[in-house]
Specification:
By secondary structure, the protein is α/β, with parallel strands linked by helices. The protein contains 17 helices and 16 strands. The strands form 3 sheets. Strands 1, 2, 3, 4, 5, 14, 15 and 16 form an 8-stranded mixed sheet that branches. Helix 6 runs parallel beside helix 7 and helix 10 packs parallel to helix 11.
């Protein structure tokens, strides 16, 4: 099949007016002007006048287990608006503890559906309940599963590491492996080092929530604030409360030796210029989640500083516990409004596709329209004419078709 449109945006190369993408057995076999693609071989042509084709979106940070969170708040009689970040964490924990396995499974299935319908063809998923992994194997989209590691008790941490290693050894090629040491304040140094050793041996990426709320900066500096007064007692970690460390989350992780090119730093809202220099030096990728940050009132990532430093950037929606949708398009449109002079349309689309694919280490088959890659295509109606098709798409484009591995995904 050949898909021909007014524009093709390969992302890895300049836009192609009157472009086309040839697909065979779920793989891209040619990309270029329609005449050149037609020369590759005789195939049926799907004409898409007035449309733009781009690669499938890569959502680099999700928690699909929490997709039904808005409904759970009501059903579990916990439908209140937390006043602080710690209160939000407590609300999430209360709801998670009340859930039955079948509720989590339905929530994941709904999350997968919402991702695909909105054009996401690959995710970086934080997996808290490891038993849910088979759901991702049967999904059309690609999933890098980051098994969550959290805790301070040494015995628990050692047991958890063994469980994670065993789980990783049983995951087949249909699932992409990773580990997520939760945060610098919820994971012990011992567990961080164990995760680093494991990811190094297996050559897999890791994702850590970094410098999301201001309370984290306070805690990492002098072990005070709501994390010390509320979070640690709630988790029964009082005996593991550290002495004042006089550091930042980034410096702390760097001192542990866990920052490298395989690291995804999620959020990075309260990072200092020195932190950014460290992240750049270590080759860390930052995953921006602007709507979640806005919803939880934690602040705004230093976009100008991150971009100026040349740190690789990707986009994540986080979960519906802190967002209104799982749409990557909604996310980059929001970021464009939030930082109108910081990112061009081309840069935003790259962050939402190839940037995420590189972060998840799946750019060999995802993130751009290139020969040999999986045929994940999005077809947008342009809605208006303009010199820059990326800008037109962000301002007026409407998603019309989602094609995953060469197969059209049914949308309402």
């Amino acid at each position: 099949m050949i898909y021909a449109a007014s524009y093709v945006l390969p992302i890895s190369s300049p836009p192609i007016p009157g472009g086309a993408v040839a697909v065979d057995n779920g793989v891209i076999t040619a990309v270029g002007p329609l005449k050149e693609v037609l020369d590759v071989g005789q195939r049926p042509v799907v004409e898409l006048p007035g449309s733009t084709i781009i690669p499938g979106f890569v959502n680099a940070h999700t928690h699909l287990e929490l997709t039904h969170f808005p409904a759970w708040k009501v059903h579990k009689e916990l439908d209140y608006l937390p006043k602080t970040y710690v209160e939000w964490i407590q609300q999430v924990v209360k709801i998670r503890r009340s859930l039955r396995p079948e509720e989590l499974e339905l929530s994941v299935r709904e999350g997968l559906r919402l991702c695909l319908e909105s054009g996401t063809t690959a995710v970086g998923e934080i997996l808290t309940d490891f038993s849910l992994a088979p759901l991702y194997r049967s999904a059309p989209l690609a999933a890098r599963l980051f098994l969550e590691a959290i805790g301070h008790d040494p015995l628990h941490c050692d047991s958890l590491l063994e469980k994670i290693e065993q789980m990783l050894s049983t995951m087949d090629d249909g699932l992409l492996r990773g580990i997520s040491p939760h945060t610098p304040y919820t994971v012990s140094a011992r567990l961080f080092k164990g995760v680093q050793d494991l990811t190094g041996r297996l050559d897999i990426p890791k994702a850590v929530h970094l410098s999301e709320p201001a309370e984290e900066a306070t805690f990492m500096h002098d072990s005070s604030g709501p994390f010390a007064k509320v979070l640690f007692p709630t988790a029964r970690w009082e005996e593991y409360l550290p002495h004042p460390m006089r550091t930042t989350s980034t410096r702390y992780l760097d001192d542990l030796g866990v920052l490298d090119q395989s690291t995804l730093a999620i959020h990075a809202v309260h990072v200092t210029p020195d932190d950014v220099a460290v992240l750049k030096k270590r080759g860390v990728t930052v995953v921006l989640c602007p709507r979640s940050n806005d919803r939880l009132f934690v602040g705004c990532a230093p976009h100008h500083l991150l971009k100026k430093s040349g740190i690789p950037l990707a986009i994540g929606t986080d979960s519906l516990a802190s967002n209104d949708s799982l749409s990557v398009l909604d996310e980059i449109r929001f970021l464009r409004q939030l930082a109108p002079d910081e990112f061009s349309a081309e840069e935003l689309l790259a962050m939402a596709t190839l940037g995420g694919a590189k972060a998840l280490q799946i750019d060999k088959f995802a993130g751009s329209l290139e020969k040999g890659k999986r045929a994940d295509l999005l077809v947008f109606s342009s809605g208006a004419a303009g010199e820059d098709p990326g800008t037109v798409l962000l301002e007026h484009g409407k998603l019309e078709q989602v094609i995953v591995a060469g197969e059209r995904y049914p949308r309402p």
